[in-house]
Amino acid sequence: MAFELPPLPYAYDALSPYISEQTLHLHHDKHHQTYVTNLNNLTKDSPLADASLEEVIKQAAGDAGKVGIFNNAAQVWNHTFFWQCLKKDGGGDLPAELEKRVVADFGSVDKFKEELTQAALTQFGSGWAWLYVDGDKLKVGKTGNADSPLAHGHKPLFTIDVWEHAYYVDFQNRRADFVKAVIDKLANWEFAAEQLAA
Ligand code: FE
Questions:
Q1: Triad 188, 189, 191: Cα angle to 5°
Q2: What is the whole-number distance in angstroms between the Cα of residue 107 and the centre of ligand 1?
Q3: Ligand 1 centre from 38 Cα, in Å?
Q4: CA of 76 to the centre of ligand 1 (A)
Q5: Which residues in the chain show pLDDT less than 70?
């Protein structure tokens, strides 16, 4: 069975003005779709074609012969996850259980948001900023290109795509403004809390 592009979990204009309809059409319909198409082409007629996306990522991670498969599979997963991390009228307070864990591991919600912002701004070139679970601790980190905490045995809770294609139409080179808008106006902390509970 071929890998498929899941629809966005909201309307194309839902995240406007921070992430425009034009950006969502390009980012989801073109970039995300391309990773799906590439992954299908690369896994066609191989046992990986019938594996779950998570299984493909785990099997291809660190395998020099499967770099292309890893990059496309991880980008399919990362984007599907990223869409769910956003919502109209997001941002604001963290759900109670997530807040408790954030305060325990970062000191305060503000400190967590600062660390997440720093991770997003200091990722050199393309990549992702993350909140994830490592063992029994919440951590903030960044990964380059397609890499993800999932490939390192960690459980992602939240991510921000900091590839230029994520923000260039709406913010040009101002990654900091994009990251601030995601954290303050679009973050779906309920989704992150659901991942923590799952
Ligand atoms: Fe992207």
A1: 70
A2: 30
A3: 15
A4: 9
A5: 1
Q: What is the tens place of the pLDDT at every residue in 28-65?
A: 999 999 999 999 999 999 999 999 999 999 999 989 99
- State the residue for tokens 């989801």: 28
Whole-number CA gyration radius for the chain:
16
Dist. CA 142–CA 121, nearest whole Å: 9
For residue 29, the 8-state DSSP code is I
77-108 burial, b for 16+ CB within 10 Å, e for fewer? bbbbbbbbbbbeebbeebeeebbebbeebbee
Contact 122, 90 (CB under 8 A): no
Separation of alpha carbons 140 and 59, rounded Å? 24
Count CA within 13 A, CB hemisphere, residue 73: 24
Please give the order of strands across the beta sheet that includes 155-161: 137-144, 127-134, 155-161
Alpha carbon dihedral 98, 8, 120, 69, in 10-degree steps, equals 110
Nearest-angstrom CA–CA distance, 78 and 64: 21
Alpha carbon of 166 to ligand 1 centroid (Å) = 5
Measured in Å, residue 60 CA sits from the centre of ligand 1 at 20
